[in-house]
């Protein structure tokens, strides 16, 4: 047992070191043009709680990002806690991502950015192999990271050449730490539930600079710290020999309860580009207590394996931001009152040439993945504001990936690719073209095996 633990711990440290290395290789590109962003986000992350993130596993991300019914012995997925019932290995997965975004506005001005960051950390183990499993993990819930700079404007009514320029910046986001159980009732039905804590800090800043020293630059900043709890219930239905001998069809569904995040917001203001705390009479900071309500989420997914070489998945997700979200802070987050419902549809496929043959060549034991997704983001026309005919901001993306075998049975290295577009150059203020690569290490070993005497 000590030998198993030592080897697994060494593998864990190696995975963490690899993820941190990938996360630190890139720095944000310098700002330019009319609208620019920093970090790994988009200017559209300025609205609501930031750019919404949905993550399941390296396997699912390369197949479009769903995975609600994607059964696998090699991966621990966030998408559906019922999937944890299939675990046979004690497993640790760490993934990091590098992303580059090119933003372009209606006049053709562009900006570039790039960044690396930790994507997710997952840990799972079986209490009863193939029947009862535990899963815990960390992943981003949303990401707020942008820099937007307007073109210089004349100072009115001063009749000279003085101009001013406004810069909007934001950073932070929400994270989720969750854990739960998955249990299988026979070969057909599995259920699961997890509880999670959502927390984070959202910072927004507005700085105004002038071309003449006659006017003092000013900065207004808000810092919102919130936290709360949520829960997700999931179910998985599995059928075999549906359309042909040896095939498998699975259907998964989840329901995530609304979450109320309580916290406080601090307003700071001052002259110069570095804000000072805004004082009121007695000298206390201007603080506002309130809450954010995250909406209910519902998701449905299908997975079909015509053979042990092919897997096809399709998923859909709905989040009621238009009617189920709310802010009780005195000053709401930018665009929070103009959000709309979020829809996400994805599909993908995986091809494993060797199937279950462990003695095949390296390239035949490599899994090849391809997928795509469409997202109606929760940034609506009233939040920007946009031309009402556009409806809001949408995202279209394509994904691909490779899963590389290693000499350690149960351990694989995953490489993922993503490219897509967000917004448009007509109707929306900025169009984002993004692409990225991710690298994950997925470690698995059998623990707590009872040795038999012969």
Task: Characterize this entry briefly.
The chain has helices spanning 2-23, 58-61, 321-324; strands at 35-36, 51-52, 90-105, 110-128, 132-149, 153-154, 163-185, 189-210, 218-240, 248-256, 259-271, 279-280, 284-294, 297-305, 310-319, 326-327, 342-351, 367-380, 392-405, 412-423, 430-445. The protein is mainly beta.
Order of strands, widest sheet: 3-4-5-7-8-9-10-14-15-17-18-19-20-21
Structural shape: elongated
Q: Describe the biggest sheet?
A: 14 strands, antiparallel, barrel
**Any idea what the radius of gyration is?**
24 Å
Chain-averaged pLDDT: 82
CATH homologous group name: Outer membrane protein transport protein (OMPP1/FadL/TodX)
Beta-strand percent range: over 45%
Give me the oligomer status: single chain
Number of helices: 3
The CATH topology name reads Porin
Tally of individual domains = 1
- The separation of the N and C termini measures 19 Å
What's the architecture in CATH terms? Beta Barrel
Keyphrases for this structure?
single chain, mainly beta, Porin, 14-stranded antiparallel barrel, 3 helices, 21 strands, disordered N terminus
Describe the model.
The protein has 454 residues and is mainly beta. It has a single domain, classed as Outer membrane protein transport protein (OMPP1/FadL/TodX) (Porin), CATH 2.40.160.60. The protein is built from three helices and 21 strands. It has a 14-stranded antiparallel β-barrel. The radius of gyration is 24 Å and the shape is elongated. It starts with a helix and ends in a 9-residue tail after the last strand. The N terminus is likely disordered.
